[in-house]
Amino acid sequence: MKAIDRTLYLGYYFKKMNWGLLNKFLTHTSKLTGRGKMSLWMDAINCVYKYNISLLEYFQFRFFEKSARERAEWAGSGFMYEYQLKMNPRSKREVLEDKVHFFKFYGDLTGRAFATLEELKNKQKSIEVFKNKAQKVVIKEIAGGCGKGLEILDLNKISNQDLINRMESTGNHLAEDFVDQHDSLNKLSSSALNTIRVITQIDENGNAYVVDSRLRVSVNSIVDNLAAGNIVVGIDLDSGKVNTDGVYSDITKKPVSHHPVSGIKFIGYELPHWQEVIDLTTKAAEMMSEYNKSVGWDIGITNEKPVLIEGNHDWCKLVWQLPIEKGLKSKLEKYY
């Protein structure tokens, strides 16, 4: 049965493959290791079956230089799909998959106003609900992910009807307040809201605890997603201080000790309002505990407090494991 499942996964990886990126990784790794492309390719396919990872993850996890014992420690796409399906059943993901439901469920914990296209058209809400220092509004898809299609508009340059027109033309049917991030994070990188990814788990007794945390940092991008070419760093849970260099998901780029634009050093950088971040995500997880047991929360930090941006039932294993260059599957296996 396992072989059948992983053959289906392999077919899915082929279907969704970014072939240009795969070839880039294959060429880079061949030059780096001196191994032929066919040898690497066959090893990658074997690892899909043996370690339940994707083809791209063979390169991103650097399996080409790891032992069998080290390879077995990594949580890949196949494992994470099965784990998250068990922790977060499809029938119970509505609050996390629908941003409007998320806003309504978590209310004040999101720390910002929102309006749907329908509400604006029906005059239930207007552009006047958006009040932030930057005088901006963010429009996005209600069910979208990874920052797909997100736009940031200047409130001083648009009317209520302009906002409606833009939302209709782009398919971004949700508008929400721009989050004015903490001054410290703005100095680190001002191109986007740099969010903290906090992974929580509900144990068998219904208790919520924080598994790990990472900081996603933008690099000349309006989003902070790793897939958009940005950086992720590790965070020490006790101190709230960054404890790794910055890494990319693109293996052709080397880790960086300082932000490439601001020049600020990563290791030792201290996140503001850290205990409040832990408290907020623990509370959010407890509120969701009846429905979803394993969630990756995206947290924005303002000068005043942390706020919930969104929760992910299918949180990213790359963001989690790449910064510390170590497989972390054992942290989840005890719940599986």
TrEMBL record:
In Swiss-Prot or TrEMBL terms, this protein is called: Hexapeptide transferase
Q: Per the record's keyword annotation, is Transferase included, yes or no?
A: yes
Sequence ranges assigned to domain Alpha-L-glutamate ligase-related protein ATP-grasp in this UniProt record: 82-334
Organism, scientific name: Aequorivita ciconiae
Q: Which GO terms describe its molecular function?
A: transferase activity
Family annotation (InterPro entries) = RimK-rel_E_lig_ATP-grasp
Supply the alphabetized keyword list.
Transferase
Sorted alphabetically, which Pfam families does this protein's record hold? ATPgrasp_ST
